Amino acid sequence: MSVPAAVRHFLHLIPGSVLVWSQDGDRIVVERATRNSTADVHRVLFAGDPPASMPGKTPAELKQGLEQGVRQRTQRRHAGR
C-alpha cells in the first residue's frame, strides 16, 4: 500500500519508516512508530517506575575493575600449569 505524498511530507517519512495504523471510531489514524526506552518497557510490564539506578563509576574505577577481572581470568586459566 502506498502512502499519499501529503501524509509522507506531514510525518517526515523516509523509505523504511515504520507506521502505526489504528482505527478511532470511523477514522483511520496514522502515526509514525516511536521507540521506547527500557524505562517505558519496565513501566508497562511491572506497573511502576524502574528502581533508581546505581551510582556511576569513575573511569579509574572501571579500568581497575577490568584489569582485576583480566588478571583473575588469566590466573584461573594458567593455574594448572
Q: What is the terminal-to-terminal distance?
A: 66 Å
Largest sheet: 2 strands, antiparallel
Radius of gyration: 25 Å
- Helical stretch count? 3
β-strand percent reads 5-15%
Summary, kept brief:
The chain has 81 residues and is an alpha+beta fold. Helix content is 42%, strand content 15%. The chain has three helices and two strands; from the N terminus they run H-E-E-H-H.
Describe the structure in your own words.
The protein has 81 residues and is an alpha+beta fold. The chain has one domain. The protein has a two-stranded antiparallel sheet. Strand 1 and strand 2 form a beta hairpin. The model has no long low-confidence stretch (mean pLDDT 81).
List the defining traits of the structure above:
alpha+beta
Layout of helices and strands:
Blueprint: H1 5-10, E1 19-24, E2 27-32, H2 38-46, H3 59-77
Antiparallel strand pairs: 1-2
